[in-house]
Request: fold
Amino acid sequence: MNRLNRVLAAAVISAVFAAGGIPAASSSIEDGHVPAERVQKQWYGDTVSALAAGEDADSLFAAALIFPLTADPESAESFADARREAHELLDRALSGDSGSGELLAHALMNCFRISSCDPEQYAGSADRLAADNAMLLLPWLQAAVEAGDEDGTASLLERMAAADGYDSYLLETGERVARALKGVDLPEHDLPPAAFDGDTLNAETRRALRLNQTSYIVLSNGVPTGYRSLIDACSRDSLSSKLQESCRSIALKMQDSASMLDAMLGVALLNRAARDEQDRRQANEMKRRLSWLSSSYSRYESGLAEDEDEALSEEERYHRSLLNGARVLETFYEQGGEIKGMQALLTEAGLPVEPPEDWSGNL
Reply:
């Protein structure tokens, strides 16, 4: 990944394990290879205008996810306006693809953040899709927990436990955004001559830029609404054995997710909802394995950066990081998620995927 994506990913991973709970969404931008904010903002604005003019669900969805990135970071009003306009785009996208889980999930999360939006308009669709994916009930769980509605909280935990799985739709979201960006002009500054065929970006660089932009757009939309409420609901001293079992079932589903963040949160949840010492040992072992995978993968990415020839110019190093990042992201998509993607890349590089028996699990 490029340096920006590594900053975001590292912030999420370290926050989960350091706090044993839920990280806040990161919006930090590191200086260096990341394109200048002014130029990037202009690209976001132009891209939203181009995509919003379309009628297909992919374009409208991508425009909605990019819209908050056009807001003034110093103005709460600007963010609120951007969120409302993004929500209108999400509703347009949903009208053309009402059965899409990823569209519904983003519309729901956005709706719960807008005071004038009534989430009940999505209840029917969410009920249908939640049988397959417990994540779609998270916003309602958050509302119930915040309102002190114990019966509602219990009902939602039981429904989440009964769902077939748990998926935060990162892959599906990324695939939609990448498709939408195929027809969009990409920012071409800070690139060396090797990135071009004449005056045109070559195909490899275009693909790399699209994948890296996609990754940042998806990550910038933050952690799904309700994660902290799930941990809070399952951490109460008064939790009944029935609800403890529901929380345990949700935790095991999250551990099977394609997302590193979901798997880490599943570990944190299982620690809280453990019914016996065997559960606690399982959670600790899973945490140890994920910690090792994350640590080993960080060393792998550091090696990619260290391979850069010091004789290269800043633009050439940036270009190489884009190409390396694209290969990583393509592997994630090909393998069906972050965890399998990391394992595949480490195996290919001859690096260990599993920790030694005597490794303690500390990051």
Observations:
- The chain has 16 helices and two strands.
- Confidence is low (pLDDT under 50) at residues 1-35.
